[in-house]
Every structure is written in structure tokens, then in C-alpha cells.
Amino acid sequence: MLVVGILSAIAVPAFLGARNAGYDKEAQASVDAAMNAAMSHYAQYGDFSSGNSVECENWSSDLPNDLQKIEPNLDFVPGMVSTARPGYTGSTGPRVVSVMAYGTINSNGEQLGCQALWATALSRTGTCWIGRIIVEGKFLIYAPVIVQGDKNTQNQQQVALTDAPLNGNAFAAYKAQSSAADQSARAIQTLAAAKNICNGFDALEGIFETNSTGERLVRTFEYYDSWRSVVSAIETAAD
Questions:
Q1: What pLDDT score does 122 carry?
Q2: Which residues have C-beta within 8 Å of that of residue 222, sequence separation ≥ 6?
Q3: Taking the CB of the first residue and of the last residue of the chain, which one, N or C, has fewer CB atoms within 10 A?
């Protein structure tokens, strides 16, 4: 019995870890597929506005419907979630992707239109995985675009690339707090809170450390250049 107990103590955490990693990869794959669909949409229309508008109408279902036609294996929902629009709940699972387009600004302060897009998917683990595309632009309305690079082999601190035109893909996550000791800026308090903010709007607004109800959100400079870097950052924060 002692041997069985020892083996169980080793095997069960390993199994749960592998299962949760699989759940997270499922949500990440949905975000990747949504970003690919968004780039196909961009190639056709020249920005991330819907085919029916020249504006970033994130309260409308037009852009999600456009992406749905390109990627029918996912369900797309609008990314603009607020108390004024309680019908929009963001991602509710790994196959439901919340999308939001937003304008960018160049170095001269000129607005470039809907050149940025966020896609979020909620994993079965309760972690909200976020993908961001910026095709053109150096600034969002609140701050310069900043992306952290991959960690080196010594696990030294990442160096933020600030004030650079970092066009392309970046990744982040909202992680539910796993223990009382996990007080990182990437952690929020409950699984319900993670579900509540797994939408494009909160991904954009993540430059603030907390929202109006005190839930902790990812900040702009906590976007990374790969899913691997995001996972590594989450694991480091949990240590």
C-alpha cells in the first residue's frame, strides 16, 4: 500500500499537469487559427474592420461573422464587453474566440486605422490565452507597443523592446490564481474572474494593473513573442 501511495503521489500530479497542458494548447491553437483567419481577412480588406464598415466596430457581430466564414471550425464573438452590452460575454471555452480590432498610431501621431487585432480563448484550465496582431503602427492609444523576448538558457530577465515598431504577432495570458502565494500581476483571483475578462476589450485594456473591481490584468509589456515565453513567464511568476 505504501508503494502504491508513493506511485500515486508521483503519477497523479504528472497526469494532471499533462492534461492541463493539453487543455491550454487547445485554446492556444484556437487563437492561432483565429489570427490566421484575421490575416486572410486583412489581405482582402486592407485592415481589421469588417466587410461592412471602415470603422473598428467591436460591439458589432460583423467582424466575427467575417472571420467565421474563413474559419468555420471556431465560434467568434465580439470583443467589446461592457455593462452597457451585457449580451457579450467574451470567450466561454477553447473553441469560442473573442476578437477585437483597434487603431494604431505611427511615430508622427497619425492614426493608421484598424491595424491591430486581439483574439482570446478560455482554456478548460481557466487560463485565458491572448493573441495580438499589429500589422502597422508603433503606438496604441495608451502606450507604445512593447513585447518581451524569449528567455535565454540561463532564465535571465527578459529585455523589453520599447519604442520600436514591433509589428507582427505577440502573445499573453490571464492566469487564475492557483494559490494564496501567487500574487503576480499575471494572476487574477478566481476562475470566474478569468472567464469574465477573457475578451478582446480587456486584453486591450490590460495596460492597467487592475480593473475597476480589483481583478488583476495582464499589462501591455507582458506580451511575449511566443506561447513558450508566455508559459515560461507564468511558471516563473508562480514560483
A1: 93
A2: 148, 172, 185, 186, 206, 233
A3: N
Every domain of the chain and the residues it spans: 2-238
- Grid cell in block for residue 230: 508566455
CA angle, residues 64, 69, 70, in degrees to nearest 5: 95
| Contact present, 201 and 80 (Cβ < 8 Å) | yes
Instruction: Spell out the alpha helix ranges (H) of 111-179.
Output: none
Asked if 74 and 30 count as a contact pair (C-beta separation under 8 A), the reply is: yes
Residue 19: the pLDDT is 75
pLDDT digits (tens, 9 = 90+) for 26-68: 999 999 999 999 999 999 999 999 888 877 877 788 999 999 9
CB 224 within 8 A of CB 171: yes
